[in-house]
Design brief:
Chain lengths: 381, 687
């Protein structure tokens, strides 16, 4: 069981013995500095605060999780390259080869989709044939897909401004865009646990939910033309959107991850794939951590949503179907945590609960928009 | 005895079981509330559920579920239960937070999941000093207790703040619920009960509403709408309560100077804004402000939000054209403002024309994205998805249909039909039309009639043809001319048969349009010949309508039209509209010819005293959750007995996997300090 390395006290790289770490930190500070010097005049107080806050946050993530650094570097390089290739002319997306087939937003998102699907295959191959190489490939593909997807969203953000300064907005304003965000966040959370618990064996299950999201994304883009950038209706023109939506998706992503790990745990308990999946104690631990982080962020997201609603709709809570379902999701995971933490419940019951929780979460995320009418109608299919 | 019952009650109310039961009921009720759309007009529910279920659901309060008494009572019980739970937990929790448990017995330490024993190589007093130093360096606060047997127990703890998370998060629930109750309907209902107020029905003039439906200016919790047309002002908000309304006077009046709507190129709205002037009652001071979506304004404790817009009484100029079959009515001009109710004479029958709505823009999507997707193959489809997100992969076809207005035409018996007419012509399948929608019942879809435009781009020709063709008294004349033209050399018997057929067809059509003709064919002609018969009938109809057109031209002293493709198309469309006109259900069609736009803004006005409580609660909730989940409470015990036997034990409130490592780390470090020579292996896993 050497592969089941113990999680916990990973001594962080001591910065003075880690030249790459220093380089990473310098690049972050430099990047923020350049942005501030060149565009500072165009930014308001919030923008500046967020830009400056990014430096310590990204530095901290990079310090504790070295694999994050090449990812961020790749995203920055590809995005800047793409923006450079555009040269301020949207039509270049059709003329320049690198844009059309590599790093324009839609192409990058298609690459992300393809890489995620192949990663899923690799993880399953690794699981079934016990091939560490296939597992490593799965991990590398998942990282690459995440880098492409992040680049896609960032470039999409830029492209929306090329369409017109009035149209430009952060790409988290409709179901297509948040679906990409969901894939990215779920993948990043999973990759973090892969590093933290030093096992790639959960990848097969977690990549399934990402693939499901990719399948939806592709269907949505191909049959509904959903990929087109739409300008923001007045209700969405708010700073709150930039914080409310991503926070919410950390919640959704973490809950989905927990549910997929729960599926793994249920199988192991029945002896299916038991020798190929991690120890149930690891699965249980990951599930708890994912639900804890998801719950914390989902709480913040719901509160941010309430603050926004107070500004946009005149009241912080009005039992809109989306709000109500968010409350139900929240209560569900609050009960889950109570059961584990104060009643000491463990095992099968909690795993089933996490799996069923995914159904509730999915309904709150997509079902409400499909079946119920309410104020969140801009997310409708 | 009674004391025991009270205690039982207290135990029940403060138990987690009770709270979870309440939350479950609340959750299920909330789900029902998302399925049944809340706060709709009661008529809509009556239509949806029918007369049997409607009153039952009304009694259970499902139309305003989140404000019904039983829902509020459950919420109140939740507040009570959570408060009692906090009270019950306070003493033991505080003891937990403060205490070190330095009097723990060895036997109870031996029960711990994480423990390790070894023999110390130094004296207990020395050991105590080293352990205390280690504890302090590792972030523990420690207390030592000299035991009666000469040994010493060092009890240390860290992360006790985790327990404060419990108070923060559960206190937050109480705060949020209390705040929410203050901002709901409850204070309004209490105020109404105390002040003898009652809600009244909507649809009356504000000045006519009874005094009992007016709330005082001192009302400190309300949420209502303020409707202001351009150039006017308003100081009375309307509060909705169930199916009724209440009036809420404000301490200031709000005048609307101008309402702005801006659009993006694709037709979707980009900005709604109201230029308002607020005039204070008390001081007479004025304040000019532009109110936008997402940017509320708080004035004298009342917060104003841009919430919607409506027509504020646009002036409409209409041409009333006759669609009556029996008596052709003269074409007249009508003028009125949206919101007006005008008396109209149609022949002998009086009608009321109620102008309900006007829209200057109507942007609609004429594209069909799925169709195009099906026509191209896989790779070509992918190709289209590549590139920037700006380039449209869909075949969205957004068009502005121009102004439209809505009205109801009510007959003497009070029956009304609803209409929705467009001002500008629309192109469909190569021809241009003016469109009018009709429905008999609110909530159903409009059915549209398309009046074809003539060579001059007007609908006059159609109405001229309609006037002649739909008048039964003229059928004989048209049929005779039609026979003359079609069978110039035929004998009189053939011609008579022809005329009889034409007359019969025309009367069938005049009664129920194509449907009448179709029914006749189905009931009298064998199935095998129906298709051919339909062909004959439609040729006859076309001939008759053509003849009616020629007659109309003659009467107007105009030249005969040439029969070409364009006119053939016009003829077909004319027939379709003539057929549809049988089901229009109104003797008049009102064509919008000109308008003067006047918009109105709808502002939401609120006083929400619970907001600060809810916000404070939210902050505490986040702090509490992070404290509970991410501050780890750990207690580390080191028992050194006089003979050097040493026991290290760890307890924690969160059993995650890393606890094993952390325990091993501490146990190893302590052993290294107390028994440098010891080589016993440490346990890999603890049970």
């Amino acid at each position: 069981m050497t592969e089941l390395a113990q999680p916990g006290i990973h001594p962080a790289h001591a910065p003075h013995r880690d030249p790459l770490g220093w380089l990473y930190l310098l690049a972050l500070i430099g990047g923020a500095g350049v942005a501030l010097l060149r565009y500072g005049a165009l930014m308001d107080g919030y923008d500046t605060a967020i830009l400056l806050l990014q430096v310590p946050v990204l530095a901290a993530i990079g310090r504790h999780w070295a694999a994050f650094r090449p990812y961020l570097t790749a995203v920055a390089t590809l995005s800047i390259a793409s923006i450079g290739l555009y040269g301020g002319d949207l039509a270049r997306a059709e003329q320049t080869f690198a844009l059309k087939y590599l790093i324009s937003s839609q192409t990058a998102i298609m690459w992300m989709s393809a890489l995620y699907l192949i990663a899923t295959g690799a993880y399953w191959l690794g699981l079934l044939t016990r091939s560490a190489f296939a597992d490593r490939t799965g991990g590398a593909l998942l990282w690459s897909g995440t880098a492409m997807g992040t680049t896609g969203l960032l470039v999409r953000w830029f492209e929306s401004y090329l369409m017109g300064p009035r149209i430009g907005h952060i790409p988290i304003s409709n179901l297509y865009e948040v679906m990409v965000l969901f894939c990215l966040i779920t993948a990043l959370l999973y990759l973090y646990y892969e590093h933290r618990y030093a096992t790639r064996k959960m990848g097969a299950f977690v990549s399934l939910i990402i693939s499901a999201a990719v399948a939806f994304l592709l269907w949505y883009a191909f049959t509904r033309g959903a990929a087109e950038i739409q300008p923001l209706i007045p209700a969405l023109q708010s700073y709150w959107m930039k914080v409310h939506v991503p926070t919410n998706f950390i919640g959704y992503g973490a809950f989905s991850l927990a549910a997929m790990v729960g599926v793994g745990q249920l199988l192991v308990e029945r002896g299916v794939l038991a020798s190929r999946l991690p120890d149930p104690r690891v699965l249980e631990d990951v599930m708890y951590r994912a639900i804890a982080i998801g719950f914390a962020f989902f709480t913040i997201a719901t509160i941010l949503g309430a603050l926004w609603a107070a500004e946009a709709w005149g009241t912080y809570w009005q039992w809109d179907p989306k709000e109500t379902w968010a409350l139900i999701v929240w209560l569900n995971y609050a009960a889950w945590l109570h059961m584990r933490l104060t009643k000491g419940l463990r095992g099968t019951m909690l795993a089933w609960w996490a799996v069923i929780g995914l159904l509730v979460t999915t309904f709150a995320f997509i079902g409400v928009n499909m079946f119920l009418t309410g104020l969140h109608s801009y997310g409708s299919i | 005895m009674q004391r025991g019952t009270l205690r039982d009650l207290f135990e029940l109310l403060s138990s987690m079981r009770f709270a979870i039961s309440l939350l479950t009921v609340l959750g299920i009720a909330s789900i029902i509330g998302t399925v049944i759309q809340q706060g709709q007009p009661y008529n809509a529910y009556l239509n949806q559920f029918g007369p049997f279920w409607f009153p039952m659901l009304e009694r259970t309060g499902l139309y305003n579920l989140y404000n019904t008494s039983w829902f509020v009572v459950i919420l109140a019980f939740l507040v009570l239960s959570t408060s009692l739970c906090i009270i019950r937990q306070t003493t033991p929790m505080l003891r937990e937070i403060r205490g070190y448990r330095e009097h723990a017995r060895e036997a109870s330490l031996r029960q711990f999941a994480h423990q390790h024993g070894f023999r110390a190589g130094i004296a207990p007093a020395d050991a105590q000093a080293r352990v205390l130093t280690y504890m302090r360096d590792s972030g523990f606060s420690a207390r030592s207790n000299a035991r009666a047997d000469g040994g010493v127990l060092i009890a240390a703890k860290q992360g006790s703040a985790s327990r404060s998370g419990y108070f923060l998060a559960h206190g937050a629930i109480v705060l949020i619920c209390v705040g929410g109750l203050l901002d709901g309907d409850l204070p309004l209902r209490v105020r109404m009960a105390l002040g003898g107020k009652a809600s009244t029905t909507a649809g009356q003039l504000i000045v006519e509403m009874p005094e009992s439906s007016r709330m005082g200016e001192d009302n400190w919790s309300f949420r209502g709408n303020l409707f202001i047309p351009e150039g006017r002002s308003n100081r009375t908000a309307v509060l909705r309560l169930g199916d009724g309304i209440l009036l809420q006077p404000l301490p200031f009046s709000v005048a609307l100077t101008k309402f702005h709507i801006e659009h993006y190129d694709n037709g979707s709205p980009s900005r709604f804004a109201s230029d308002i002037v607020i005039t204070d009652d008390a001081s007479g001071e004025t304040l000019s402000h532009t109110l936008e979506v997402n940017r509320p304004l708080t004035h004298r404790g009342v917060t104003l939000y841009q919430s919607g817009f409506e027509d504020g009484g646009s002036m409409l100029r209409l041409t009333a054209r006759s669609l009556s079959a029996d008596a052709a009515l003269a074409t007249t001009q009508v003028e009125g403002a949206v919101g007006d109710s005008l008396a109209i004479e149609a022949g002998k029958h009086p009608y009321k024309l109620e102008l309900t709505d006007f829209r200057a823009f109507n942007v609609e999507d004429f594209g069909s994205p799925t169709q195009e997707a099906e026509t191209s193959a896989g790779l070509a489809q992918l190709q289209r998805q590549l590139g920037s997100g700006a380039i449209s992969a869909s075949s969205r076809d957004l068009r502005n249909l121009g102004p439209s207005f809505g009205y109801k035409l009510r007959d003497a018996a009070g029956q009304a039909r609803e209409f929705h007419n467009y001002m500008m012509p629309v192109e469909q399948r190569g021809a241009w039309f003016i469109i009018s929608g009709m429905r008999e019942e609110a909530g159903t879809d409009f059915r549209y009639i398309r009046f074809p435009l003539d060579d001059d781009g007007r609908i006059d020709t159609w109405f001229d043809i309609h006037k002649i063709f739909m008048d039964p008294r003229r059928h004989a004349q048209i049929a005779a001319r039609f026979a003359q033209r079609s069978l110039p050399g035929a004998d009189s018997a053939t011609r008579e048969r022809f005329v009889a057929t034409a007359l019969h067809t025309a009367s069938l059509f005049a009664e129920r349009g194509y449907e009448g003709v179709g029914r006749f064919i189905e009931s009298t002609i064998p199935a095998a010949e129906q298709e051919r018969a339909m062909d004959v009938f439609s040729k006859v109809l076309q001939g008759m309508v053509w003849e009616a057109w020629l007659l109309a031209r003659e009467q107007a002293g105009l030249a005969e039209p040439v029969m070409d493709d364009k006119h053939a198309l016009f003829l077909g469309n004319t027939l379709a509209a003539l057929s549809d006109s049988r089901f229009y259900g109104a003797p008049l069609y009102f064509q919008l010819t000109d308008y003067t736009l006047r918009q109105a803004t709808v502002l939401q006005v609120t006083r929400s005293p619970g907001k600060p409580l809810v916000y404070l609660g939210s902050l505490l909730m986040v702090l509490g959750i992070f404290a509970m989940l991410y501050i780890r409470e750990r207690r580390l015990f080191v028992l050194v007995k006089p003979d050097g036997d040493t026991l290290v034990a760890l307890s924690t409130n969160r059993r995650t996997m890393d606890v094993d490592d952390i325990f091993r780390h501490h146990a190893e470090s302590l052993r290294a300090r107390l028994a440098p020579a010891s080589t016993d292996p440490l346990p890999e896993h603890t049970p």
